[in-house]
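Researcher: Go.
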Amino acid sequence: MSETEASESGETVEGTTIVLGSERDAVEDAGLPDAPGDAPADGAEIEPHHGGRIADVIGDAFTFLIVISRLALAAVAMRCLSEAVQGAYAYVEDCATTVDSLADIAASLNVDASVTSAHHDAAAVMRETLAEADALSSEAAEMATEFDNAAQGHEDDYGTVNEAMQTGDADVAEREYYSNR
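Model: Structure:
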């Protein structure tokens, strides 16, 4: 059945690869090694394939270092955010104190009570936001600590593995073995 006939009837045509006997014989005669992960025809053990091991080890080392570095950078960014919020907190607190002082001075100069009252209200709103700013600063500081803990935990969990991979002392499984699982 042709592809056109199959598509009109709603049937599926499976793709096939045709290997001529001469091609198969040429591959077998060439003495090429089996593909990594292919079991030998005689049932013998699979020979380890180490062709890309060095590149894999270097890649894994960079990945490990990148993860640790990014976690450390995130911790620094959270600390900077916490400090910036604390700086804004101090500024707003100073503004509220100044507005209250100016409102008191205005009241002593017989400025309309509605004006001085509005200024005191504004200072009160500033002070209300300070609690939120303080909570934000604390949360950012906690996040920085958590990023530090994550980086240290990653180092604790995988640092010895990374070191063993770099020194070549460990016998590790081939990536190809796990890639198809």
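Model: Residues 1-7, 12-20, 30-37 have pLDDT under 50 and may be disordered.
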